[in-house]
Specification:
Mean pLDDT: 96
CATH architecture: 3-Layer(aba) Sandwich
Structural class: alpha/beta
Number of domains: 1
CATH superfamily: Alpha/Beta hydrolase fold, catalytic domain
Number of strands: 8
Strand order of the largest sheet: 1-2-4-3-5-6-7-8
Radius of gyration: 17 Å
InterPro entries: AB_hydrolase_1 (IPR000073), AB_hydrolase_fold (IPR029058), AB_hydrolase_sf (IPR050266), Hydrolase_4 (IPR022742)
Helix content: 40-55%
Protein name: Serine aminopeptidase S33 domain-containing protein
Domain Serine aminopeptidase S33: 38-229
Keywords: Hydrolase
Strand content: 15-25%
Length: 263
């Protein structure tokens, strides 16, 4: 593990593997780079793989107020530049990480060869925004333990907890989140609407949706995928934290996409 400073923010990262190309893996809201631990050994092909803790997560600089999706996308490019990874790049992310991945592709089109979005959190309906702000306030007021049961019941349902030890580790790591940073990302989501940006993408794009994910179900992700010409959509048997819950299925989908796109 190592750290790089960019725009006054310290980012923890890990760069492994070798090859001309780079695969960037972006974790979900409330996650850390370790969220890809079970997927990484299953990925096929020769490439460098960059994982990092986003702003506000893990051991990177924490956030207050409202996060910025522009800044979070620019962090990816800053890391790539600092590490000298200037050849082709595929960016993959889950949930909020999926939104970051799609925004990197839209904001820095010359740097990204392909993008994979796993249950991407690309916007909140206007009628739900007051509730999201109220929930962010509750997180700051009560801490992660105050919202754990409510949130994890939806994002990590009982049907996906057959590996009890894996769930306990995940929950403990999730509880270690900084409440202020978590709330800041919620507030960012409340004002997010990426529909037009996503529809303008012109590069190979994979959209994954979990059949047991009530937050970003196939019924929400599949229509989004149809706005991107030539994109690929897959519904897989998993939940919101799919890289942890079903790493084999996620790896199989990513391996197929990377092989098809020369990644």
């Amino acid at each position: 593990m190592n750290w790089i400073e960019t725009d006054g923010v310290g980012l923890r990262y890990e760069l492994t593997g070798s090859g001309a190309g780079t695969l960037v893996l972006i974790h979900e809201m409330g996650g850390t780079l370790e969220g890809w631990d079970l997927v990484l050994p299953l990925l096929q092909g020769s490439r460098a793989v960059l994982r990092y803790d986003t702003r506000g997560a893990g051991l990177s600089t924490k956030l207050r107020g409202t996060a910025s999706l522009d800044a979070m996308a620019d962090d990816v490019v800053a890391l790539l530049d600092a590490l000298g990874r200037n050849d082709w790049v595929t960016v993959a992310g889950g949930a909020v990480g999926g939104a970051i991945a799609l925004h990197v592709a839209g904001r820095h089109p010359g740097r990204v060869r392909a993008v994979a979005a796993l249950g991407p959190a690309t916007g909140i309906p206007e009628e739900r925004r007051p509730a999201i702000h109220a929930h962010a306030d509750r997180v700051e007021r009560e801490g992660m333990i105050g919202v754990a049961d409510d949130e994890l019941a939806r994002s990590y349902p009982q049907s996906l907890r057959s590996d009890a030890a894996r769930y306990r580790r995940f929950r403990a790591r999730w509880l270690a989140n900084d409440p202020g940073s978590y709330a800041a990302i919620y507030r960012m989501l409340s004002g997010l609407d990426m529909a037009a940006e996503i529809a303008a993408l012109r590069l190979p794009t994979l959209f994954l949706a979990g059949t047991q994910d009530p937050l970003r179900p196939p019924a929400l992700i599949e229509p989004l995928s149809r706005t991107v010409a030539g994109s690929r959509f897959e519904a897989i048997e998993t939940g919101h934290f799919m890289a942890t819950q079903t790493p084999e299925r996620v790896a199989a989908s990513l391996n197929g996409f990377l092989a098809a796109t020369g990644g």
